[in-house]
Specification:
This protein is mainly beta and about 70 residues long. It is built from 1 helix and 4 strands, in the order ββββα. The longest helix is centred in the C-terminal third of the chain and has 6 residues.
């Protein structure tokens, strides 16, 4: 997994955790990504999307279809 949102390009951010004694430790903050099916270029694909893009409606979900098995007698 690339840890990058396929819609907005959000990716990990680096920085320092600073303690009370002012000791700095390097850390990474990862985006909140979810795997979901989305319509991309007219096809249904699995994509990694951040939750902000899901909530804002940038992601188009595929149409739910109810397939019924054909019974041949």
């Amino acid at each position: 997994m690339a840890r990058v949102c396929e819609y907005c390009g959000k990716k990990p951010v680096t920085g320092n955790l600073v303690s009370h004694s002012n000791i700095k430790t390097r850390t990474r903050w990862l985006p909140n990504l979810r795997t979901m099916k989305a319509v991309k270029d007219g096809n249904t694909q699995k994509v990694y999307v951040c939750t902000r893009c899901i909530r804002s409606g940038k992601v188009v979900r595929p149409i739910k279809r109810n397939y019924k098995p054909v019974v041949t007698a």
